[in-house]
Specification:
By secondary structure, the chain is mainly β. The protein is built from 2 helices and 26 strands. The chain has a 22-stranded mixed sheet that branches. A hairpin with a 5-residue loop joins β14 and β15 (299-325). The longest helix has 11 residues, at 488-498.
């Protein structure tokens, strides 16, 4: 369940405070049975008997999360001059209990198993300040600063199944980590108008400094900083049509799990570990787009893009006939680890639009077409075509009731050393409002006719092939209830007018 509360206070006509607080709870319990047949062959073509195994596992997950925020907005007599200050924080506490037993019907190995308990805490705080100052007609200067403070505590206690059926503490699979990452950022940008409004645009520069500290054994994650430029130029063809060019410099930082060097041997033939030496992934994104709106209320967007990433982060699989770890030799092991593989180039098109029919039926759709090329030094490049299509339809059943259907399909995707599966999901919902529009409630259902979504993932390398079929339970049901009081709707309309950007949004 999720819950939240928000309060707006107009202290003066120019000063506004907004406070929010929320509390969420999530829990699930799952069991699984995995049958695996590992075939091993030599380069000369000799095939060894397959290793049959059955792994039965169970897990129980629970998480409690609280978040709160306080925002202050000040406007001035001069139109477009404003100050925004935001403080937000979240605290999550979770726990995972897991157990599993692996058996080998042909007697290749003795029965193995483990029980583990994994409590964790995650606390993040964001503080930002933004200021906009109009300098001249069509010229606005914007500046700001932000700090992100992330603090993670993680503990895993594992007991291993012994040959006599008892469980004993496993020091090699028991660990505790503390991870702290702080990001400091500042930016300066300007919106401008050139040649009497022929071009509108926005140009900016952002500076970021990242400081990471952890007690990962034998690692030292370096402090990093960067300068990130951005540029948007837009030309208004007429009242309803725009052409836009955009460039942005992006950064993707490795997650905590990607950096954590702990070696997970819960499946001794498929071992996973993090890589504390991962560097940030750097991206250069270019886009050229055309937007048109129609008198009927619909709109159309056509865009082409080109993205180039360096230090591209992807999962790498390596096969070891024998993998030594903590004094134990594990046989026929596939090791999965995130690495900076080299570069990735993506280009394609984005098509989206909406149309209204008889003021009752509204259709919105988006299509993303991409060609992805992965390049790693010393190896042949890997490329693949992928696409994503979404469709949203809403119908006004009555003045106070709306029905909606949303569907999304993502095709299979070829990346370096693996093929990721396709995914289809859809949601149907009905929402009803009271006559005064203060109370609304609704019901929704996702993947009504499919209990599971089947996903087949394949991985391959110089001396191995691997397939994994996963059934994901996406079918779900939901109930929503909303209550509004005060003059929220009028205030939001004023906010939208105040926050209208100098550069029209596409």
């Amino acid at each position: 369940y999720q819950s939240g509360f928000s309060l707006d206070w107009s202290v003066t006509p120019k000063d506004e405070l907004t406070a929010t607080i929320g509390y969420d709870h999530t829990q699930n319990h799952g069991t699984s049975s995995i049958e695996q047949n590992m075939q091993t062959s030599t380069s000369a073509g000799a095939v060894f008997p397959g290793i049959m195994s059955v792994r039965n596992s169970a897990s129980r997950f629970s998480e409690n999360a609280a978040d709160w925020s306080l925002a202050y907005k000040k406007t001035f007599k001069k139109e477009g001059q404003e100050l925004d200050v935001l403080y937000s924080s979240s605290y999550e506490k979770n726990n995972i209990d897991a157990s599993q037993v692996s058996s080998y019907p042909n007697g290749d190995y003795p029965i193995s198993g483990l029980n583990s308990n994994n409590p964790g805490r995650d606390h993040e705080t964001d503080i930002s300040i933004d200021y906009a100052q109009p300098m001249a007609k069509g010229f606005v200067l914007q500046t700001g600063a932000k700090a992100v403070l992330e603090n993670i505590h993680d503990l895993v206690v594992t007991d291993t199944l012994l040959n006599n059926g008892d469980y004993a503490a496993d020091s090699d699979q028991t660990y505790g980590f503390h991870f702290v990452r702080t990001i400091y950022a500042g930016y300066l940008s300007t919106t401008f108008s050139l040649f009497k409004g022929f071009f509108n645009g926005e140009a900016g520069m952002r500076y970021e400094r990242t400081v990471t500290n952890s007690d990962f054994s034998g690692t030292d994650i370096p402090t990093g900083h960067l300068w990130a430029p951005s540029l948007v130029i837009q030309h208004k063809l007429n009242e309803n049509q725009f052409v836009k060019f955009a460039y942005s410099y992006r950064i993707e930082r490795p997650d905590y799990d990607d950096l954590n060097p702990f070696v997970n041997i819960s499946d001794p033939h498929n071992i996973t570990t993090g890589n504390p030496l991962l560097r940030n992934e750097i991206g250069h994104k270019y886009e050229l787009g055309f937007s048109s709106s129609f008198k009927s209320g619909g709109n159309l967007y056509l865009g082409g893009f080109y993205n180039y990433n360096t230090n591209d982060i992807q999962q790498i699989f390596t096969y070891y006939p024998v993998y030594p770890l903590n004094g134990v030799d594990y046989s026929d092991v596939t090791l999965a680890q995130r690495e900076n593989i080299g570069s990735q180039t993506t280009y394609g098109a984005n098509i989206s639009g909406s149309v209204s029919i008889a003021n009752k039926l509204n259709l919105r759709s988006n299509m993303l077409l991409r060609e992805i090329i992965n390049t790693m030094p010393g190896l042949a490049s890997v490329s693949g075509f992928t696409y994503k299509v979404s469709l949203n339809a809403s119908y006004e059943l009555s003045k106070d009731m709306v029905a909606e259907v949303f569907g999304n399909y993502t095709s299979r995707r070829t990346v370096f050393q693996s093929v990721r599966p396709a995914l289809l999901f859809y949601t149907m919902a009905v929402k009803k409002q009271s006559r005064d529009k203060k109370i609304s409630y609704g019901v929704s259902v996702t993947n009504l006719f499919n209990r599971y979504v089947n996903q087949l993932t394949t991985a391959y390398g110089a001396n191995f092939n691997q397939s994994n079929l996963r059934q994901i339970p996406l079918r779900s049901f939901g109930i929503t209830l909303s209550y509004k009081f005060g003059k929220q709707e009028a205030k939001n309309k004023d906010k939208e007018e105040e926050n209208s950007p100098v550069v029209p949004s596409l």
